[in-house]
Amino acid sequence: MIGPDHRSPVWPTAEPAALAGIRICDFTGQLAGAGATKILAALGAEVIRIEDPVRQGKWDILRGTQPFVGDHRGIEAGGSFNNHNAGKLGITLNLRDDRAKELLRDLVAVSDAVTENFAAGVLERLGFGYEALRRIKPDIVYVSNCGFGADGPYGSFRSWGPIVQAVSGLTFQSGLPDLPPAGWGYSFMDHTGAYYMATAILMALFHRRRTGQGQWVDLACIEAAGTLHGAASLDFTVNGRPARRSGMPNSNRSQSPAMAPHGIWACNGDDEWVAIAVRHDEDWQRFARAVGEPWTGDERWERLAGRLAHEDELERLVGSWTAGRPKHEVAGSLVAAGVPAAPVLRPSERIDGDPRTRDWGLWVTVPHSAVGDTRVEGLPVRLSETDWAIGRGAACLGEDNQYVFGDVLGRSADEIAELEADGVI
Amino acid sequence: MSAFDASSPASPRPLDGIRVIELTSERCALAGKLLADMGADVIVVEPPGGSPMRAYEPFAGDEHDREQALWWWHYNTSKRSVVLDLDETGGADDFRRLVSTADVVIEAEPLGRLDAAGLDWRQLGAASHAAIGAAQPSPDASGRNERLIWVSITHNGRERPDPPATDLTVLAEGGPVWSCGYDDHTIPPVRGGGNQGLQMACHYAVATLMAALMWREDSGRGQLIDVSMLAAANLTCEFATYFWLNQQVDVQRQTGRHALPQISEPTQVRCADGRWLNTGVPPRRGPEFAALSGWLAELGLAGECSSTELLKLGESYEQIDILHLDADPLSAEVFGAGRDTINFLAERLGAHELFVGLQSIGLACGIVYSPEEMLADEHFVARGFPVEIDHDGTPVTYPGAPYRFSATPWRATRAPRLGEHQDLLAD
User: Fold this and answer.
1) Closest Cα of chain B to A14: distance in Å?
2) Same structural domain for residues B153 and B81?
3) How sure is the predictor about B130, in pLDDT bands with cuts at 50, 70 and 90?
4) What is the band of B136 on the pLDDT scale with cuts at 50, 70, 90?
5) Do both A78 and A201 map to the same domain?
6) Could you tell me if residue A168 is inside a domain?
7) Secondary structure class of B272 (helix, strand, coil)
8) pLDDT digits over B403-415, tens only?
9) What is the mean pLDDT of chain A?
10) A246 has a chain B CB within 8 A of its CB
């Protein structure tokens, strides 16, 4: 519908963009959905995010909640919202009004994909389910994303990241023996659901590009999460060995593959920790040399079987060595010896104290129309020919109405003013 | 009828006809699997003796055999295997020939290893491109493949140091570990399970690779994609990152819930059968209080529950402002009553009954399943999530599709035996 040279008006460089010419009609929000189209926008797609003017876009709870950007407050100041929507365009549509539905039909007709992460069935009830979208544009790609998926016995159940993680097994698998589940201390599956969603959108678009065929992708984040347990699921289906068993989980140890010592130990200071992974017997020799204490010479430690058989004792000894030492010093000496080790870094340390993330260009300063310059996340990839770029923070509510309704959909300035006055946009 | 039928061997897949050469490594195996299960011809190149993953526990039947490693099975579905010794001239030549037939190479080799052997992107890819618009690029006389996309996954990119690292150390220095653990900070922070430090980079690699494939359709040109595991972990920390970027404050870990600058209320409750439930946010709106009261009565427990009266009061609220409970003691009490009621029910009901009961009255919550319990749950079974994959006559149940495509469904076959497709090299 749009040529391969078309660029989003907020694409910031003259360099080629991998997804130039791709337009996304985007209803996503929060992180599980918005995180997906953020990746597409950074790779050059024109992502047009649609919000409800009546509710001031607050369906996305991140729009006006903490952490706020600096001292700013209100619906334009949500720091997470700004991060997840950087590089996108923003428009408003009050879909209670038929004129808004007409505008949406026109937008779908010039888009390549429609994306959303409402609760199952919401877009269909608005009159824009897959069959309706296909009538507007036969080759449309439609990707829906919710916790439990578009159908099934729990089709009406609702979720967000922590619930997805709980039901999928991810929460259970993260913790130490005889304690409650530690789980993930954040919405890991909102990030990862977004990764799967970005991949699904692009795979479906690639198929359409080569065959002309559109389709619907139903992404259930809990199912995506259920594929992320490595060998643990098969250990049950093949060997009948459940993950729910005595002594498990113990996710600071490594059972698959078996390694010891493998864990996180206290260092000098308050809440300072180091992670150490002795992968094999060769690593053990390196470790023993680097530590240089008499206990490392015990022959029980020479082979993995011995280290596993006395793992509790070995962990106490490792802890006696790390205690009182600075975490960077412990990790540095082990890495120099060839043993995997790393300090547990706080946000302040890894974002503003780690030259490796700064040098990568991971934290990008972008302008935002209401709150000024802000820092957002970039991508952990570099492309030699079509590198990513982010030109702007999140759009303010309806910030790109003129461009989309005027330049893209051909409405006149007068028409747009009337739509605005009538609360349609 | 569902829009989503199970895949059949005849149904098309989005990556049909795309050939991927993967140099086996735990760091890129998931990337290859994601592509292979969606139709790409992924040829995994193993060293003599087999991929290191073939020695990872656990094994089928606990038989320490390179064909029985469940890690290998899980991460290498739908791939084909050839054995090549890249340190030998013959193996290197075969690798070059394979690459010349490929659309994509995925590797996570130690930095410099391939370059030293003359088998890197720098030698085999289109390091310097002709002008855009040149006639269809193809493997040219020098052996370069102009259309090749090369995905390199390393600790922190191809131009930075490559320290020894594992899933654990990447998650520790990349940020996730800081946010995971317990209220009691004398207990170490926790590594989230399931090798996610390896998998995060693979997700970004695949999404980016798909974009590069899209661009190649128009430009005819491949490119290098340089993926940093450390950066991928840094970008998978949610609030820890956003609180620092926007407020310059560090979050602190809390048992089973979000790490935040302040300590928050618990969100996990142990149920009568010993299993845990994530309660989500307790009722805030009038209809939610009414629904909870109704269910309590239905269960015949309204008389026993000390919060019954406060729940009734909750029915009159449009929405309790939970950010300002300090200023409104009555609202705080009503809100607390919702939480107390869920705890009361947890003492009497099993986790599954409480989960389904609360969700059925519109209160979002989640049972804390183990992986095998999730696979057996009726919802996921009804949706066709667990799949049987044939192992030479024996069906084995696997977690299935991470997404359901209506026209080009996901489909997987068992992981290859070592060198099972060696005759590919004879072509």
Assistant:
1) 15
2) yes
3) very low
4) very low
5) yes
6) yes
7) coil
8) 999 999 999 999 9
9) 97
10) no
Separation CA A371–CA A367 (nearest Å):
8
Distance from CA of B32 to the nearest CA of A (A): 13
pLDDT at B246 over 90: yes
Asked whether residue B410 is assigned to any structural domain, the reply reads yes
Please indicate if any CB of chain B lies within 8 Å of the CB of A220: yes
B422 closest CA partner among B74, B91, B67, B35: B91
Q: Which residues of A touch B172 (CB under 8 A)?
A: 264, 273-275, 342-345
Distance between CA atoms of residues B87 and B125, nearest Å: 20
Q: Is A106 helix (H, G, I), strand (E, B) or coil?
A: helix
Residues B356 and B406 in one domain: no
Is residue B393 domain-shared with residue B356, that is, in the same domain?
no
Domain carrying residue B66: 19-236+386-426
For A377, name the nearest residue in chain B, comparing CA atoms only: B235
Per-residue pLDDT tens over the stretch A130-146: 999 999 999 999 999 99
Q: How many folded domains does chain A comprise? A: 2
**Residue B269 covered by a domain:** no
Q: Mean pLDDT over residues B19-40, rounded?
A: 98
**Looking at CA atoms only, how far is residue A410 from chain B in angstroms?**
27
Nearest Cα neighbor of B416 from B109, B64, B42 is: B42
Instruction: Show which of A343, A370, A393 is a domain's final residue.
Output: A343
Q: At what angle do helices B196-219 and B167-174 cross, to 10 degrees?
A: 80
Q: Strand pairing of A372-377 and B104-107?
A: unpaired
CATH of the domain at A289: 3.30.1540.10
CB-based burial of residue B166 (10 Å sphere; 0-12 exposed, 13-18 middle, 19+ buried)?
Answer: buried
Is residue A54 located within the same domain as residue A139? yes
Minimum Cα–Cα distance from A265: chain B residue: B188
In tens, the pLDDT along A28-69 reads 999 999 999 999 999 999 999 999 999 999 999 999 999 999
Of the candidates A163, A195, A275, the beta carbon closest to that of B177 is on A275
Residue from A46, A163, A282 whose CB has the most chain B CBs within 10 Å, to mutate: A163
Spell out a b/e string for A147-158, using b for 16 or more CB atoms within 10 Å of the CB, else e.
bbbbbbebbebb
Position B270 in a domain:
no
Closest residue in chain A to residue B167, using alpha carbons only: A277
Q: Tokens 């957002």 correspond to what residue?
A: A376
CB contact under 8 A, A167 and B56: no
A50 touches chain B (CB under 8 A): no
CA distance B132 to chain A (A): 11
My answer on whether B43 and B165 are in the same domain is yes
Contact B364 A215 (CB under 8 A): no
**What pLDDT shows up at residue B324?**
83
Q: What was the ipTM of the complex prediction? A: 0.98
From chain A residues 388-407, the ones with a CB under 8 A of any chain B CB are none
Alpha-carbon distance B231 to B170, whole Å?
Answer: 9
Enumerate residues 306 to 365 of chain A having a beta carbon within 8 A of any beta carbon in chain B: 331, 335, 338-348, 350-352, 354, 356-357, 359-360, 362-363
How many domains does one find in chain B?
A: 2
The pTM of the full predicted model, rounded to 2 decimals, is 0.97
Residue with tokens 């020479």: A302
Q: Are residues B207 and B351 in the same domain?
A: no
Residue numbers of the domain that contains A48: 23-226+359-421
Residues B227 and B360 in one domain: no
Residue B263 lies in a domain: no
Q: Tell me, yes or no, if A22 comes closer than 8 A to chain B by beta carbon.
A: yes
